[in-house]
Amino acid sequence: MSLETAMVKANAQDVHYQAFMSELLALAEFEAETLPQPAGEAAVARLHRLGWQYLNLNPYYVLLLEPGCSADEARTAYRRMSLQVHPDKHGGDPRAGAAFEMVKKAYDKMDSEDKLDLCNRICQGARKRVDEQIKAAKKALRKDGKDEVVPEDEPRVYRRTVRQFVCKMFVEFEQRRAQLEARDANERKRKTEEAALEAEESKLASKEAAAWEKSRQKRVAGWRAWTSGSGRGLKRPPAVKAEGTAERDKEFEARGVEWRRDWR
């Protein structure tokens, strides 16, 4: 997806992202072979451009570094930019203070070999995406019988496009990281709530078991009293005597004779 297409599909509710895409497409210095090194007020203003909330997520842009830079180059760029935007050099300007924090935050992303390697791999991914788009564009031209010529064939346009996509890739990386952190936070919250619920259920079960055990002796004594008939107001019902079968049959027969006599 080209940057122009991304601009069209930008979230209408996120004005910062829209401003970032607009500013990104207008960065003329991205065409230069070597990025210009502003000083004074320009060094501070550069970090407060439209869409800076997204634009400054790219540490290469903030520190004016090229992809593939070494750890020493990153350290040198950090020291240089820190001095240029330090609030003491700008009369305590709050924008300079914010810019100083942005520079520090950018260097925090590449202040170790592992972090720097990750940043360089993000840049490689951006270059790969640009190359794939160029290849697809030339394939479409070839299919239509046209010359396979695209604007990115010019070195300055290619440099600008790669740098633009590096910025966009850092935004996508940060968005994905934030999503994963939010998901992990929700998962931790869910597990904490489940653990608390299980602990409460276990506590309640323990109380019920303790109460049941505590009343066991009383229940056993009551049962024994009832079975022996010595309990207060607890009388066993009298045993039912089973009548003999022969006597019962004689009684029924006699009564049957009387009933038949009465029916007449």
UniProtKB/TrEMBL annotation:
Pfam families: DnaJ
Matches recorded under InterPro entries: DnaJ_domain, DNAJC8, J_dom_sf
SUPFAM superfamilies (alphabetical): Chaperone J-domain (SSF46565)
Stretches for region Disordered: 181-264
Biased composition (Basic and acidic residues): 181-215, 244-264
Top-rank lineage group of the source organism: Eukaryota
Signal peptide stretch: none
CDD domains given in the database record: DnaJ
Residues in J domain copies: 58-134
Annotated Gene Ontology cellular component terms: nucleus
Protein name: J domain-containing protein
Organism per entry: Diacronema lutheri (Unicellular marine alga)
